[in-house]
Amino acid sequence: MKKLFPAIALVIYANLGTAAETHLNGVWQLSELYQNAREVSLKQPSAVTVYTEQHVIYNYYARLPTCLSPALSTGFGAYTLSGDALTEVIANDSDSNAIGITVNSTLTISDDGLSLEKTFQRGNITHREVWSRLE
User: pLDDT tens, 95-124?
Assistant: First the structure.
């Protein structure tokens, strides 16, 4: 019994440290977007983001300097999640100006794990994104 207790404690400790990260894993679709508390209409199809254990992959439609109409854009990077602090470091993006950017967000995941809200500052604009879990 004395040998079993440390093993059980280690398993419980390990699960406490990764519960939030595991809860974030999955496929998410952007459902609402606000800039400085004003709702922004979403381009269709909506942006989609995939979180794995350590990486984030995303697709969105944007008007890039090289395109006359919105084009499918994509990017990926690594992320860390500590409590409600989400840090994403962009490794590659269709917009070369985004490469290397670090985005620090406050993250709130609903109790049922089906929606999340990200809030972050970029320049003088506060962004609030609401995402719905697809899978």
Answer: 899 999 999 999 999 999 999 999 999 999
